[in-house]
């Protein structure tokens, strides 16, 4: 059985901005998708190929998503990681590479833990590499909280064995031709953890703080029914669409800047209502399935 942290690293960009959302999401069932399952399959291939390259015991995965495209992308990722490992060997006699490593950062986040795709530890540098198979959202490494949490977890394991003044964080997203790296000093990372991460994590774990809608709502399980998000969107609709008698060019431009967000939110509400009716027998007064 897979155990999930209340404050996971993968959702940290959300609970750091909207602290009560972590507890709110617990009221909703986990749902998977074709894209999520495809990503899991790609990660399994990455893990297998790296273990095999290192001569370690591994089991070849079998999934319905196996295809030439996935094989090529995971081969490229494997080659990139091995190249980084060789570079570490050039500056350190005994670097360490860990694959799918359990990382505990509970000294900063209550009950916080996660799994790092690849960690390369050497004197002078800790390199955290995260494989992203999705192509819908371009992911960057700069101040990426998920990556920063992984780095903190790795430092608790190894900074007393290696001299590590800085951390290198890399997002490897092949389907977007995106290999993005950000370097941060360990002292700056730990300062962020004490000043920003700890207080927000405590609020989030206790379910306290203000609901704060924003772009981070995209993958929130509560997004369709979140009252704060609904009020924010309805407020935008009132402000932007009820300006008589004729809209100015500036007002039209403002509407164009918000209409995509409003349309997406409306589609999410529709999708939730349709799923509830089809799969759970929910009756919506005044509406019927066609």
- The number of helical elements comes to 8
Q: What is the CA-CA span between the terminal residues? A: 39 Å
Strand order of the largest sheet: 1-2-3-4-5
Question: What's the helix-strand series?
Answer: HHHHEEEHEEHHH
Strand content: 5-15%
Shape: globular
Average pLDDT taken over every residue: 88
Please give the share of residues in helix: 40-55%
Structural class: alpha+beta
Biggest sheet features: 5 strands, mixed
* Regions with little confidence, pLDDT below 50 for 5+ residues: none
Rg estimate, integer Å: 22 Å
Please report the total strand number as a whole number: 5
Description:
By secondary structure, the protein is of the alpha+beta class. It has helices at 12-15, 21-25, 34-53, 68-91, 145-158, 186-206, 227-241, 249-280, and strands at 96-104, 113-122, 125-131, 166-173, 178-185. The protein is 47% helix and 14% strand. A five-stranded mixed beta sheet has the order 1-2-3-4-5. α3 (34-53) crosses α4 (68-91) and α7 packs antiparallel against α8.
State the main characteristics:
globular; 290 residues; alpha+beta; five-stranded mixed β-sheet; 8 helices
SSE blueprint:
Blueprint: H1 12-15, H2 21-25, H3 34-53, H4 68-91, E1 96-104, E2 113-122, E3 125-131, H5 145-158, E4 166-173, E5 178-185, H6 186-206, H7 227-241, H8 249-280
Parallel strand pairs: 3-4
Antiparallel strand pairs: 1-2, 2-3, 4-5
Task: Give a brief outline of the structure.
The protein has 290 residues and is of the alpha+beta class. It contains 8 helices and 5 strands; from the N terminus they run H-H-H-H-E-E-E-H-E-E-H-H-H. Helix 3 packs across helix 4.
